[in-house]
Amino acid sequence: ELSSEIPPPAASNVPQAQPVLFPIQPLNRFHGASATIKRPREIAHFSYDDVHGYREDESGINYYYRPPIGADLREGFDTFQYYEDKEDPHLDSLLKTLVSKEKREDKKVQTDFVTWRGMMTKIMTVPYDMFAEFEMLATLHDGTIYIHEDFDAKAASRAAENDPPRTNRRPDPNQQSREMMTYWGYKFETLALIPDVPQKVSPEFIENRTKAVVSNYAQHCSIVRTAFGPHGIVLGGEVDGLWHPKSSDPDAPIPWIELKTSEELPPYPHNRDILKFERKLLKFWAQSFLLGVEKVIVGFRSKQGILKVIDVYETVRIPGMVRRGTGCWDGNTCINFAAAFLTHLKQTITGQGVYRVRLRKRGTHIEISKTAEQGTGKILSKEFLDWRSED
Ligand code: A3P
Ligand code: MG
Ligand code: MG
């Protein structure tokens, strides 16, 4: 039955007829100073254009421009251009960008793990997210473990919860549907971003952005190299924009920003209101921390969707804000948990084949089981495998 002990390293080398279990509790084994973390450094980037076509450039980068307070985040919902992956994106665009880099530099990217930032956010926040659940697939190839979300499992779990994938359906814009809540987030981005530095954008564009069509087709993604304790990791993820232009020094940190919306706190907040917001801050912090995003900019909106207040948080200061607040989460614990879990993955994913990494809803353990004895499933693209098998 379920063991509450940390599985000893040796246990991980037996064939995985039974899932190997990584217990989440007790968290006190992750307390204390955090595992050494390297500052994430960008090694490559790519964009998606306004039809979500892949482009290996910076065309998807936008710049922050303070959005107008009082703006109605519901406005324009009926023309929302909502992009959602219909097919499993695997790691394709991340690997494509790495292949180009390797060809250009004639050098392999060597690291212990490659994944989307979203997977690491999920892992890092497990200690404090009672509702977390995920299914990921992982494979070891040439010394690196590649991980991505199990797209089919996610679709199935959505269907089971009777929560169909969001579409461009147009319900009553006064009703606060899920679609509308999603729209608010992108509307805020459209209000807070301009395509270039303000000096190079026309006053008309800035004036008219409250009327602009909201679309999430275009994106810019940064690929960074970072480390959790002894584990090197390459992460790819979307960045919302720049606070000011990138420095000409390639080693300087990039002034990325992350935009978020959140419901405004009542004038006299109860502890539970603060708790709810500080729990959200965990997600904001983890997501931004992983790519080295320096600022998290929160647009506080009324229940109805009117933009009320904008707060700019330095990502590094968020854990301290919460420590002095409700203390509902601890960043070092998240980092140590993730570092220990990566150690566990390395000890478990040692052979060929595909592994499933799963946390069930209200699960007490992360489970790892083998789903294929051979090959790399669909985790690695043909382009990547062909390139890596060349001499
Ligand atoms: P907000 O979270 O600010 O409301 P991101 O913040 O990661 O850049 O994503 C931009 C917006 O996409 C979010 O804005 C939200 O509207 C939508 N979004 C992202 N992930 C989502 C999810 N898992 N479910 C619903 N909407 C999501
Ligand atoms: Mg984003
Ligand atoms: Mg955002």
Labels describing this entry:
391 residues; alpha+beta; 10-stranded mixed β-sheet; 4-stranded mixed β-sheet; 9 helices; 28% helix; globular; disordered N terminus; binds adenosine-3'-5'-diphosphate; binds magnesium ion
Write the layout of secondary structure elements.
Blueprint: E1 20-23, E2 37-48, E3 54-55, E4 63-64, H1 92-105, E5 113-116, H2 117-125, E6 134-141, E7 144-149, H3 151-160, H4 178-192, E8 193-194, H5 203-208, E9 219-228, E10 231-239, E11 241-242, E12 256-263, H6 271-291, E13 295-301, E14 307-314, H7 318-324, H8 331-348, E15 354-359, E16 365-372, H9 382-389
Parallel strand pairs: 5-7, 5-10, 12-13
Antiparallel strand pairs: 1-16, 2-3, 2-9, 4-8, 6-7, 6-15, 9-10, 11-12, 13-14, 15-16
Helix pairs in contact: 2-6, 2-8
One magnesium ion is lined by residues 238, 240.
Question: Mind explaining what this structure looks like?
Answer:
The protein has 391 residues and is of the alpha+beta class. Helix content is 28%, strand content 25%. It has a 10-stranded mixed beta sheet with strand order 1-16-15-6-7-5-10-9-2-3, sandwiched between helices. Strands 11-12-13-14 form a 4-stranded mixed beta sheet. Helix 2 (117-125) crosses helix 6 (271-291) and helix 2 (117-125) packs across helix 8 (331-348). The longest helix is centred in the last third of the chain and has 21 residues, at 271-291. It starts with 19 loop residues before the first strand and ends with a helix. The site of adenosine-3'-5'-diphosphate (A3P) has 8 residues, from helix 4 and strand 12. Adenosine-3'-5'-diphosphate binds at residues 182, 184-186, 188, 240, 260-261.
